[in-house]
Amino acid sequence: MKIIGTGSALPKKIVTNDMLSEFLDTSDAWIYPRTGIKSRHVISDEKLEDMAAEAARKALADAGMEAGDLDMIICSNVVNEYITPSLSCIIQGAIGATCPCLDINCACAGFIYALDIAESHFKAGRVKNVLIVCAEEPTRMTSWKDRSVCVLFGDGAGAAVLTEGDNIKGIKCSAASATDKLYQKHILEPTPYITKEEESIPLQMKGQDVFKFAVKASSGDIRYLLDNLGMKADDIDWYLLHQANMRIINSIRDFLGQPAEKFPTNVENHGNSSSASCPILLDECNRKGMFKPGDKLALSAFGAGFISGAVIIEW
Ligand code: COA
Questions:
Q1: Residue 261 sits in which domain range?
Q2: Ligand 1 center to residue 207 CA distance, Å?
Q3: Is the CB of 206 inside a 6 Å radius of any atom of ligand 1?
Q4: CA 272, 212, 236: angle at the middle one, nearest 5?
Q5: pLDDT average, residue stretch 262-284
Q6: Which of the ends of the chain has fewer CB neighbours closer than 10 A, N or C?
Q7: Ligand 1 pocket residue status of 141, Cβ below 6 Å
Q8: Residue 108 CA: which ligand 1 atom is closest?
């Protein structure tokens, strides 16, 4: 398969580090050096499904394709207002598609996992055109009283349209269960029979453990793919990494021994938008005309689970 269109959509509200310090014991002087984040887009009156549909429509327009041409929609999402129906079904209706739809929750690595699922369907000859939409509102998962977590995240949606081709050179998906490192819990509807204790817990994070996992997993996944494909880190033109933290990106870059120019970033203005992060960055770079046909792109992401994944694409 190959990517022939990208799109993204962001909430209009921009929250700077200085704005956070108005109600939290934090500062730009703490946040920026540790994370590289200056501001993030935060949902206010928007609905996530509308942003997801907007990103999808832009990706379809970029691909020159109609929604009716789609054979499958895969939506990556950790949380949204609906438990059911799936976000992909809501997007399907909003854009006027009629194809089968499925949602996945692979945390921040959702775009890579969605590409992997799509690739399997292409290889099986079951689809000709697939839409992937990653739509996330992690700012609704964190406690806004917890300065160690809420400052890291932003909301948004990113989408990609795929068609038949031979441009995905390799995909690696990994998982290593470590459920106490990054998690959120919520209470389901009560029944007369529930006797166990349940509690609602906003997003909890062991930041330094996540940091170490992220660097190890991401550089390991990319290295695995390079070795398998007989490629060197130098052969990759662009590294599009999950935009969680500039220090994580720099550590992976150091491990790969590659120059900063190959690592476009938007973490400065977006924070971590979970699985939407990679496709939003892909769309921003695509719309700037940064990629030439034949360029080699390595995308890599990591997140709660722990889950990670990487893909090498020829543009
Ligand atoms: N503003 C001010 N101080 C803060 C703060 C904030 N927003 N958040 C935490 N602190 C404080 C802590 O309370 C702690 O204070 P103490 O030493 O008095 O206890 C101090 O800063 C140091 O905290 P620490 O956790 O040691 O900082 P760190 O250098 O590990 O950086 C992260 C914290 C979160 C930036 C870093 O661990 C990280 O980026 N981890 C990865 C997170 C991530 O990417 N998650 C998503 C993955 S998908």
A1: 171-314
A2: 6
A3: no
A4: 70
A5: 98
A6: C
A7: no
A8: 48
